[in-house]
Structure formats: C-alpha cells, structure tokens
Amino acid sequence: MRYPLGKMKTRKNILLLFSKVPKPGLVKTRLTTLKDGIFSPEAASVLYHCMLFDVVETCMTAFSMLEDLQSSDGVEDSYQLMISTAPVEDLPQMRALFEDSGTWPREIIFTSDAGATFDEHYNDAFNKAWDAGADCILSMGADMPALTTHDVIGGFCALHELDDEDVPGIVLSPDQEMGVSIIGWNKETAFSHDGVFYNESGLTVLPAYIRKAKAAGLSVKYLPAVPDVDTMQDLMHAATLVEAISYCAPFGLGAKPYRTAKALDEMGFSDIRVMPNGLLDPRSHIDS
Q: Does the model's pTM come out above 0.70?
C-alpha cells in the first residue's frame, strides 16, 4: 500500500516470543535423565536460559538492522519484543530474570498466555499483542539457538510485502519435525491457531497451518526452516549450527548465540562426532 508524501503511516511490529521460566525439571525435560536425555534437570534449565537470552539478543539486533532498512514508501516501522509465558504466576519471575541480567538495548513487554489448549494459549497471546497496538505479529519459541538475524528480518519483510500489497496471508517457517518454528500475520488478516496444535484428524502443525490457510484462501509466505531443540538429536544438530553461526556472525549476521555456545562447551557437548559410517555408496566405477 503506497501513501502520499507527507502522510506517513506508522506500522507497529511485535515479535511475540513464547517462553517458559527456565525451572529445572520443567523445561527441556527430553534432554534430561528424567526422560531419555543425558543431562541433569539443572543443566538443561541453564541451557534453556542461555537459548532464551541468545534468541532475545538476536531479535533485538535484527530490529536495529530492520530500522536501517526503512523503506521510502511512506511507512515508518517500529519494532518491539513481547515475551509471553505461562502460567500467569510465573510472570514476575520472567520479568525478574531479565531485570537481574542487566540492561537490554530495548524495552521488553512481558505478558502471560492462558487457555485450555495450546491453540487457545497462542490465540490469547496474539490477542494481547493486537491489544498492545500491533499491526504485524511474528511469533516464535525461545528454544531456537540457530535463529539468525536474517530469519527475523525475512519474517518481517514478508509480512510487510503482504501489508503493502493489501494481500491477506500468513508467513511461516517450518521446524525440523513437521512443525512450525515461526508463524505470523497482519492485523487485517482473519486467521487463528484454532485446530492447529490440537488437530482432530491427526495433522501435524505445518500441514495444519497450510490447509487452514488454503481453506481460507490466504497467501502464505514460506520462510527458510529454523530448527528448535527438544530432543538429544535436535541438540546435536543445534550444536553444529551454533558453532557455524558463531563463526559466521561477523560476516553479516550481527549476532551470535554465544551464551549457548559457552554452555555447550562447558557441558562437553560442543564437539559433535558420530560413528564412522560404513554404508558407503560404491564409487569405484566413477572414481577409478
């Protein structure tokens, strides 16, 4: 949508970050000996704490980069981070977690989400972001140490393309296991999370969003996949990505997951090796 000179439109962008308070035994339990992992509940909570802070720093760095990319089409964008946690009783702890950590470059809005299902929790948090004045919402979880500034920038740019063209639609990024790691849409798009996380037909989250959007005749902007961390296999993958991103950050990413990298190193989980694979494709007929 184009605006005449002198009639600048302001567009408020909120990044809605879902996170639990990193309590031992209540976060990343599949990485712990309580389930099928190898870490203590305390170690897993420290790791999650590091992921949360790294994701927040990546998002804030991306906000600054986005502001440097301000368009000249009569739209002035602002960016704000909103962290939603549950239950509501944990809200003071989440706020204290950030206040006690020192000064962050931007103000953070803290809220809580509620509901009988995860669908309802997501809808509740989105509604609170709309009530806070959001024109565009991009949402994600905090357990994504491989999140880059490019992922955040790409998500908001995709939302702005839809908004500028007055096209109703959503943007999404898949995770590594049939789910979605980033999801968002603009205020004028009629959409919700109903029937996505608790789909009665057994659909996983990614196809549930796609088919829901298709049924509503909405456009979908597809973003590169961003993996999250739930299982030990996920963590092995994430550790290799964290190493790569940490090295690549000075060459254009602007932020690196240094807290997670340090935690993985101290936990002895930063040098990922696998057993040699003897199942090699025969190549003698090619390489000879």
A: yes
